[in-house]
Write the structure tokens for this entry.
Amino acid sequence: MRKALIYLIYILPVLLVAKYPVLAGIGSTVSGGLKKTGIASGYGDKAPALENVAGKVIQTIIELTGIIFIVITVYAGVMYLTAFGDETKVKKAKTMLVQGVVGIVIIVSAYAISTFVLSQLGGAVA
């Protein structure tokens, strides 16, 4: 089990860098070049709309909490498999597994609700 946690510690930063290139240091270069191109083409340096900023913040929070609940679910599964019939470990693993699945369901529901609300907000503003 300890080996699985060590692998998780090494894999999680790789997944975050793959998802958010800003963490790797290339995001500022790309956005700087896009900003220069926008100004040169006459579109100017306009600030993003409120619903876009709110959507990005909500999306990031939901993704990070989703990753946390998936890790909890996987950890509970590993704990259940390595319990070797010990009732206290099995009970704890089942509890964590249920909590992880409930968390994932809540995160998916939050994503659906926020997507709906922000799409309605975008339609009302535009």
In short: The chain has two domains: 1-46, 49-126. Residues 1-46 form one domain. Confidence is low (pLDDT under 50) at residues 22-27. The first helix runs from residue 2 to 19.
